[in-house]
Amino acid sequence: MAANSFWKYGVLIAQLSFVSYGPMNTAEAATLEQQRDLFRDIYAQVQDGDIGEQRAQLPKLKTYPLYPWIEYEFLLDNFEDTSDKKLVEFAEKNPHSLMSDTIYVRLANRLSNLDDWKTLLKLVPPHPEHKAIQCYRAEALFATGQKTAGLEAGKAIWYAADHDLPPDCNGLLKQLRDNKALSREDYWHRIRGLIDNNYLTVAKIQAAYLSDSDEKLVELWANVRRSPSSHLDEVFEQEDSAHAREIIVYGINRAADKKLQPAIRLWDESQQKFDFTPAEKGAVESKLGRWEAWRHDEAGFERLRKIPAEHRTTEGNIWLARIALRTGRWEEVLEAVNDLEASDDEESQDDAWPYWKGRALEQLGRDKEARNAYAQIASDTTFYGFMAADRLGRDYERLQAAPPDRNQRIEGLHKLAAVQRWEEWLALGERGKARREWFRMLENMDKEGMLAAAELAARQGDHNLAIWTVSRTRDWNVVDLRFPLLYEDVVLEKSRSHGVNPAWVLGVMRRESAFNEGAESSARALGLMQLMPATAREVGRKLGLNVSGRNDILQPKTNVQLGSAYLRDMYKRFSGNYAQATAAYNAGPGRIPKWAPNENIDADRWVESIPFNETRRYVRTVMAYTTIYDHKLHADEGIPLSLRLKPIEPD
Fold this sequence. Notes:
By secondary structure, the chain is an all-alpha fold. 66% of the residues lie in helices and 0% in strands. The chain has 39 helices and no strands.
C-alpha cells in the first residue's frame, strides 16, 4: 500500500478510538454476523494491500474484537511512515499479544538502526519470552553506558542459547565481543549446546573466534556428531586435552546410542591413548552400562554397580535401579534411588523413585520408612501415585474430590480482549489463528488463571485445548479438566461389543489423541485411537468392514470400533494381561516376548524395566488414565490399579 493511500486510511483510523472490549449488548449481538462477514472481506483485502471501496465500512467494525488486526495490518504495511508514538499506542492498547510482540520487535529494530537507544529502552518493554526483544534491550544497555547491566543481560542470553539466535541479536553479540566479555570457555559452552542440538554450522561460526587448534577440534566434533564411529579415530590423533576428551566422551556415548559393541571397542581403544578423569570414565561407563541394562543383560548391572557413586550419572543410576528392581536386588535399588534423590536433574524428579524407594525399603523390612516414601506420592493421580496409595491401603482421594469453583476467574476472562479475539477466530473457522492467540495469552497468566482458561475452553467444547492448557501448569492432578468423559456412548457400545473394558479404551484414547478426532501423527497414525492405516485395514478386514482410506479411519465411530477390536486382540494374545497388552498397542506385539522375565515378577517391576522410554511411559500413563476413567464410569467405585495388574510370566 502506498504512503499516500495509507494517509487516507490513517486519517480514518485516527478518528476511531481504540477500545477495551467488554461483553456485547443485545444490539451489537444482533449485528455480530454482519461484522464477521465484513471483517472477512476487509481483512483479506488489507492483507492484499488495498481495501478499495470497503474503507467506508471500517466504522462498523469499531466494536468488533478482531478490529485491531485490521489496524495492525495497516501499521505493518506502512511501518516506516508511522510515528513511534502511534506504534506504542497501538501496542499498549493490545498488550501481551501477538500483534504487540511484532510491533515492539519492529520498533526496536528501527530505533537500533537509528542508534536511538535511550528511546528504545523507554518505549520497548522487557519480554522474557521473546529473544529478539531481550537482545535489543541488552544492546541498548551497552550503548547507553550501562555496561555492567548490559554484560549481565547479554551473558544470560548467551548462556541460554543452545540454538541459533535471531539476526536481531547480532548487534548484542558484537557488543559482547568488542567488550571482550566472552572467554574461551564461554564459547565452548555455547558450542557444546549448539552441537548437542545439531546446530553444527552455527557452532562452526562460533569456533572461528577461537584459536586454530580449537577451531579444528570443533570441526572434528561436528563430524563426530554426524557419524561418531567414522570420525572418532581422527580425534584419537589429537593431543590429550580436556576438550579432546570431552569430544571423545560425547562421541562414544553417541556411538553407544546407535550400536553398543562398536562403542565398547572405541572406549577400550581411547583409554590406551588418553588419561580420562574419573568423572569422564563415569560418564562413558554409565552410558555403556545403561545400554547393557536396557537389554536386561547382567553385564549392565555389574558395570553400573562398579562405577563410584559420585561419578555415576543420573542415567546410570536410573538404569542401575531398573535392572536391580527387575532382578530383585533391593539393596542396589535403594542405593541408586538415594543417589537420584541427591540429583537435581529432571529425570531424577520422576515420581517413580519415591515409589521404588518405598518398595526397596519394604522388601528390606524397613516398613515405617517405606510408608513414609509411599506417602510422598500417594495422593497423586499418576501410575505410581495410585500404586503407592494401594500399598498404603488408601482410597484415591483426588478422584472423589469435587472440582474447585472457577466461575469468578472465568467471568473475568470473558472481559479479556485476547479471549474475545480467540472466540471470534473460532467463529470464523480460523482454528490455527485462535490457538496462537490463546497460547500467547497464557504466557502472562498465573496457574489459577490458566486453569480457569482451561475450564473456559472445556465449556466451549474444546476439551483438547483445555487439556493442553492444563499441561502448561504441570499440575497433573487437575482431574476434572484433564479427563473429560467424551465419546461415552460410542466407547460403551464398541468396547462392549468387543468385550474390552471401556475405561481402558478411554485411557488409550486420552493418551493417544487427547480426544482430537482429527489427530494425525508424524508416523501417519490417525484419529482418536491413533491407528496406523495398515493396522486399521487389517482389523477392518477381520471385522468385515471396508476401510478404504484416511477419512474412513478418522471417522470417530469407526476409529473406536477398530481400536477397541485391536485392544481385544492384544488382550487375548497376552492372556488378559493389561500391562503387556497396553505395551503391545504402543510398541507392537512382536516386541513383548523379548521383554519377558526369566521368572514370574510383579507387573510394576516389568513395567519399569521396559527398555523403550516411550513405551514405558505409555504403559504407566494409560494404566493411570484407565484407573481414572474406571472411577468416572463407576461413580468413584472403580477397582484399585494394583488389582488390574497381573504378574508377568516368562515367555
